[in-house]
């Protein structure tokens, strides 16, 4: 009998995938970590019941969380990533001419399992001389670090356990402190279909500290409901004002598969039925 993985979304629905092979299955101090192989989406990293990233569509989420905020800043030299243990976001970020990228992931098992069973997702990112991987709580790190960054990206699990404070006003205030005077922040902010309260909470909490707050969307086939949101907080630059030529010139040599100048602006201007996610903009 085939084994099936059930990734619950909102009330009364789930995505269900046939598991052809279990490649890794262990419990860390923080979560149940699995890497499984599925017929349509290939290898998947699963934390507790939630699909985090897959062979087939990781590029969509990682390109949109990395490049839209990095392009919003005219000249990012330093990047902070909170969470993101699979390294896919780090890999995208390092395509920019950064001097350093600090990544703070609480769970080493996530990094090790990805490197062992889905190494294509991080590529060489963890071995890049600009990378400084720290295995510790991102909330505590941001509270006490003396370093300063141009861009900060929050690639966390949905809010439960140690990721709950990563959606709070205190954390965004601490990120404001570690960002340069023209710094840019972006975070995954959940499903526009069943986590509307979460998006509103993130926008409210970021808005306490950042004068510019923009929510944008992308379609990620393996996230429950497919539609996903990201929220950007900025001290000076507004992503809606970045010109198409400027975007194209910054990313044209990266060989991206989702993020383009057109997608940048489409993501920030969702169709009418989704406008509630950008309410107030
Ligand atoms: N793209 C994914 C998604 O939205 O489903 C998130 C991927 S990434 C694997 C999420 C990471 O956040 C996990 O590896 C988890 O261990 C990490 N994380 C959760 N809470 C954290 C914290 N307080 N500090 C640092 N990392 C944290």
Q: Would you kindly provide a written description of the structure presented here, covering whatever features stand out?
A:
There is one protein chain. This protein has 281 residues and is an alpha/beta fold. Helix content is 27%, strand content 32%. The protein contains eight helices and 13 strands. It has helices at 58-72, 88-93, 108-117, 138-144, 169-178, 196-207, 244-251, 261-268, and strands at residues 3-8, 14-19, 21-27, 32-38, 42-47, 50-54, 78-83, 100-105, 131-135, 149-155, 179-190, 212-219, 227-234. A seven-stranded mixed sheet has the order 9-8-7-10-11-13-12, sandwiched between helices. It has a four-stranded antiparallel sheet with strand order 3-4-5-6, covered by helices on one side. Helix 3 links the parallel strand 8 (100-105) and strand 9. Helix 5 (169-178) crosses helix 6. The termini are far apart. The mean pLDDT is 96. The chain binds S-adenosylmethionine.
């Amino acid at each position: 009998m085939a084994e099936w993985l059930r990734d619950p979304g909102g009330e009364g629905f789930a995505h269900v995938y046939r598991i052809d092979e279990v490649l890794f299955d262990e419990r860390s101090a923080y979560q149940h970590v699995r890497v499984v192989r599925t017929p349509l989406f290939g290898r998947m990293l699963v934390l507790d019941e939630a699909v985090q990233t897959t062979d087939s569509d990781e590029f969509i989420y990682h390109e949109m969380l990395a490049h839209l905020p990095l392009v919003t800043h005219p000249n990012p030299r330093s990047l902070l990533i909170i969470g993101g243990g699979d390294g896919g976001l780090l890999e995208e970020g390092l395509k920019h001419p950064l001097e350093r990228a600090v990544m703070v992931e609480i769970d080493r098992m996530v990094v090790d399992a990805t490197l062992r069973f889905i190494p294509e997702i991080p590529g060489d990112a963890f071995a890049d001389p600009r990378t400084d991987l720290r295995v510790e709580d991102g909330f505590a790190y941001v509270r006490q670090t003396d370093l300063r960054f141009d861009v900060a990206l929050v690639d966390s699990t949905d809010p439960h356990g140690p990721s709950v404070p990563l959606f709070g006003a205190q954390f965004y205030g601490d990120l404001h402190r570690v960002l340069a005077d023209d710094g840019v922040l972006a975070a995954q902010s959940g499903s526009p279909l069943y986590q509307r309260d979460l998006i509103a909470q993130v926008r409210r909490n970021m808005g306490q500290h950042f004068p510019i707050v923009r929510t944008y969307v992308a379609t990620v086939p393996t996230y429950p409901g497919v539609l996903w949101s990201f929220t950007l907080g900025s001290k000076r630059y507004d992503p809606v004002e970045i010109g198409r030529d400027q975007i194209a010139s910054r990313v044209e040599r990266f060989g991206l598969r989702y993020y383009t100048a057109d997608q940048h602006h489409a993501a920030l201007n969702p169709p009418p039925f989704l406008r509630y996610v950008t309410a107030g903009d």
